[in-house]
User: What shape does this take?
Amino acid sequence: MNVFYITTPIYYVNAHPHLGHAYTTILADCVHRFHRLLQEKTYFLTGTDEHGDKIVQAAEKNKQDPQGYVDAISARFQTLWPELGIENSDFIRTTYPEHKACVQRILQKVFDKGDIYFGEYGGYYCYGCECFYTEKELKEGLCPDHLEKPHYIQEKNYFFRMSKYQDRLRGHIQDNPAFIRPQQYRNEVLAMLREPLDDLCISRPKSRLTWGIELPFDQDFVTYVWFDALINYVSALGWPEGELFRTYWPDAHHLVAKDILKPHAVFWPTMLLSAGIDLYQGLRVHGYWKVDETKMSKSLGNVVEPLEMRKKYGLDGFRYFLMRDMQFGHDGSFSEQGLVNRFNADLANDLGNLFNRTLAMTHKYFQGKVPPSAGWTSEDRDMADLGLSAMSGYIEHLEAFQLALGLETFWEFIRGLNRYIDAQAPWRLFKAGETERLGTVMTLVLSGLRRIALAVWPVMPETSETLCAQLGVRFAPEDVDLRRESRSWQELQPGIEVAKKSNCFPRQEFQLEAPEHKAADSDSKEPEVPEIQFDDFQKLDLRSALITNAERVKGADKLLKLEVDLGVSRKRTIVSGLAEHYAPETLQGKQAVVVTNLKPRKLRGILSQGMVLTVETPAGLKILQGDEATPPGSKVS
Ligand code: MSP
Assistant: This one.
């Protein structure tokens, strides 16, 4: 039996869980569920990373002692996951005594081997990253990730001879193309390994930091947080003698985002080589979610709360959107409008309609029971073949963590079934009294619904279970074998009774507020706005525009100076109050709607020749956008 062990990063407890953490963990959950449907022996680990400077600083800021603080935040992660449909097998915390003991045991082993030495080091330390940078690695003197000035620290510390394992690691990556995927990250790591590797500083003196795991060979030092954290992947399995370790290691796949590529692709495998533990099987690296094309950050106030999305759009719609709209390995842009569009197109239209119409027809033509089926035509065979090939494609893509491609492929089958119904027109067969043919067509479609209901379980578990119940199909993951489903078409047995209605995915509207706010406000009257005549409205010249440049206006916190293109040689300068809502560099290339015939006005000495239309949202001002790019200068009415 195949064995599959999947992990997420263990998250720092200095921040509350947000969209980014939810994405990785939901993706891991989907992949884990998928492997369960391949009938493999599986294990799924997530957890929290609780030591280090960052955590101490966050606890101090919250006026709490570190232990009380980490207990509270870790609990937030632990209670969030079930709310997002995540079924992890275990949850590890680096403050657990078993984990600490395991870290000390590995440190001692590496020390005894002669791979740890004491030395002096000076370097640029970024507290955000919890690591040292060389001058070369800094970006104009700043930390390349946080863009903050690092602290120069010179101190005596213990070092791990990482450089000793550089060649073995490079050889392993070259010989095993699937070790790091997608390809661009493998290339990035190979490029890193072309330069000589520095040894890794793995301790912090207690005079500076006490919140960590004490080194077993020097009680004046604690362990560097990354050396401690990475070991979670084996400590949770009870390395070295634990039953779980013997079952699941080294069949491990570590899922991470690109921000922590180096610790996973370089620190961790060299640590394993030194400790004499087999290398993990694969590192899978995904990109970053941005929000409306901007980095998600607390200071910009655009952090997406997973539970709020669940409340607004339902859990499965949210999970589906995350999996469908992020191409694995690339960055994705999160927007609620995007979520609604995707929901309506794929779930309400394609999937929802297919179930609604099929169940309704089964009731209308066969009293709600799966009818008997007669011989197939070539169209029936083609339809079933599409079902098999869509399932094979789905499996292949999900094995590579490419959920967006997998779902896209599988939806070909869902759309195919809708087209098949249109072409076979059961309503005409019914009218013509062709009951036998009608039975064959309806059984084929109903059997197609069964395979859809099973296949969507990894991504939309609640929906899958509801759809199975509607089809009278008993669902248990241990009874489903997706590979078998990709090889042979299984027909539903005649006589099974199906539900009258499905209604899993009613169309969604873009909701600006959480539903309860809406309800609370629904009694209050619309604000009174004086009516205008249509002629008044027509006086406005509204045009579609392209923002070609944006910069801050000196001395004005709220203003941005925009250059906009209004089509054939019409360029304008507009001063707009957007500085608190958009970083200027994110506006270049963005479409907007502009009032062009507003009387020009000087603002801070700059002549503003128009106005950009914006929408007030709880998350701040948003530039009004059409749903498609339009040529600059097009009239808006
Ligand atoms: N504690 C370390 C990991 C140690 S693993 C042995 C850490 N923690 S973290 O809380 O900063 O989590 C980083 C991870 O969170 C990313 O690798 C990714 O999985 C997830 N994400 C956080 N923000 C994200 C986005 N905006 N987009 C996608 N995923 C992101 O690093």
